[in-house]
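In response to the reviewer comment on reproducibility (Comment 2.3), we provide here a single inverse folding case reported in full, input and output, so that an independent group could reproduce the run without further information from us. The structure tokens appear first.
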């Protein structure tokens, strides 16, 4: 894992009183887990960020921030992962999550003949919100769970590889001509 790289570029946790924040926010911001880089914190941050990225709501960053605070996982990573859905990727994500939600709910796809009227937006909004939200939540749970498991697996693989490397170095002693 790029733990050393991330540690170099992430902000350091500050002590209480070093922020210009209201007192009631200081315990949350001073929590060392919000910037901590361990397997649990990073994998939960991946789940939170990927889950929130696929939610079809405005304010995904705010939702990811609140979830990271509640779950005490890496806050910058959670927020950064939300931006996987950006203005370039949002349209395909919304189409795919709508199709997933439509398939799960068994609703027929909506015919999208665009008319620039309030009635059209209101009518279409009512018809697509349930499939869109259902598909977004299900896709977010699935992709978030895959991200969580991938980080857990990669982290474990890296640790085991480092253990094996150190073990091999201990077995090969200086001055041995066997290697």
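Designed residues, in position order:
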């Amino acid at each position: 894992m790029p733990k050393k790289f991330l540690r170099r570029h992430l902000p350091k946790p500050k002590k209480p009183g070093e922020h210009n924040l209201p007192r009631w926010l200081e315990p949350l911001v001073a929590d060392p887990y919000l910037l901590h880089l361990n397997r649990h914190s990073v994998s939960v941050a991946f789940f939170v960020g990927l889950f929130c990225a696929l939610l079809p709501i405005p304010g995904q960053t705010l939702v990811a921030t609140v979830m990271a605070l509640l779950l005490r996982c890496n806050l910058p990573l959670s927020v950064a992962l939300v931006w996987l859905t950006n203005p370039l990727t949002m349209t395909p994500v919304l189409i795919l999550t709508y199709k997933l939600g439509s398939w799960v709910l068994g609703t027929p796809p909506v015919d999208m003949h665009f008319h620039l009227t309030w009635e059209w937006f209101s009518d279409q909004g009512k018809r697509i919100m349930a499939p869109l939200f259902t598909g977004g939540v299900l896709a977010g749970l699935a992709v978030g769970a895959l991200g969580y498991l991938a980080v857990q697996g990669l982290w474990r693989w890296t640790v085991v590889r480092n253990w094996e490397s150190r073990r091999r170095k201990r077995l090969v002693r200086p001055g041995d001509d066997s290697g």
